[in-house]
């Protein structure tokens, strides 16, 4: 097949390390940092699905608010006393998540080769703007697309369709890159060519469909353009 004509990246978990908040969580709650970061993320994704599929989206909330709600739930579940100060610190840390080290170089290579790039994310616009600036990725992305415009989270088809509309190309000509297996699967079902970045050596979803390719870091994006 010809190489893709454009590349879309998921943001949280793919460009930005959602588990980097575990370092601060460990300082605030010794011995519970990793457990909190994992449960926080799992509940966050569960909430996106819940508000998307219930009552035709009538219960939609921006990703920032779901992130706060899932933090509060995770702390209650783990029996952790989440003070207002702790919550503020952790939410601010989430706003400025660590970026994976290879991001900038990969995006620079794609720009040099004239490949349009973008983010297609569950994050709301303000969150994404801060994250992109904090990671020093301004000027390396042609589009920063939030599902907030359709008020439906991935894996809803309307969320994935935003990338097609922004890039003005069919999904089959666009490479969608995600570290989240569920997201790579949803994008594959939608019609994108997909790269699952399996950073944590996990099994893929057992639903009868595989991504176009599987890699271990964002560097594997460049293999589509050799």
UniProtKB/TrEMBL annotation:
Chemical reaction(s) catalysed: an (S)-2-haloacid + H2O = a (2R)-2-hydroxycarboxylate + a halide anion + H(+)
Family (UniProt): Belongs to the HAD-like hydrolase superfamily. S-2-haloalkanoic acid dehalogenase family.
Classification via Pfam families: Hydrolase
GO molecular function ontology, one term from the record: (S)-2-haloacid dehalogenase activity
Enzyme Commission identifier(s): 3.8.1.2
Keyword Hydrolase attributed: yes
Role of this protein: Catalyzes the hydrolytic dehalogenation of small (S)-2-haloalkanoic acids to yield the corresponding (R)-2-hydroxyalkanoic acids.
Keywords recorded for this protein, A-Z: Hydrolase
Name this protein carries in UniProt: (S)-2-haloacid dehalogenase
Top EC class of this enzyme: hydrolase
Origin superkingdom: Bacteria
């Amino acid at each position: 097949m010809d190489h893709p004509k454009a590349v879309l990246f998921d943001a949280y978990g793919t460009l930005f390390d959602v588990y980097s908040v575990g370092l601060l969580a460990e300082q605030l709650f010794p011995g519970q940092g990793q457990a909190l970061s994992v449960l926080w993320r799992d509940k966050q994704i569960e909430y996106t699905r819940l508000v998307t599929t219930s009552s035709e989206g009538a219960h939609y909330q921006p990703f920032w608010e779901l992130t706060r709600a899932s933090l509060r739930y995770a702390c209650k579940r783990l029996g952790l006393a989440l003070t207002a100060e702790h919550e503020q610190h952790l939410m601010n840390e989430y706003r400025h998540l660590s970026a994976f080290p290879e991001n900038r170089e990969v995006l620079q290579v794609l720009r040099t080769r004239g490949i349009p790039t973008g983010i297609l994310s569950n994050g709301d616009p303000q969150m994404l703007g801060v994250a992109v600036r904090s990671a020093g990725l301004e000027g390396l992305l042609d589009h920063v697309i939030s599902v907030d415009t359709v008020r439906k989270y991935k894996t809803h088809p309307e969320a994935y369709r935003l990338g097609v509309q922004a890039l003005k190309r069919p999904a089959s000509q666009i490479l969608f890159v995600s570290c989240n297996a569920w997201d790579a699967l949803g994008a594959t079902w939608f019609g994108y060519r997909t790269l699952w970045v399996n950073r944590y050596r996990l099994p893929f979803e057992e639903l009868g469909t595989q991504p176009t390719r599987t890699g271990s870091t964002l560097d594997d994006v460049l293999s589509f353009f050799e």
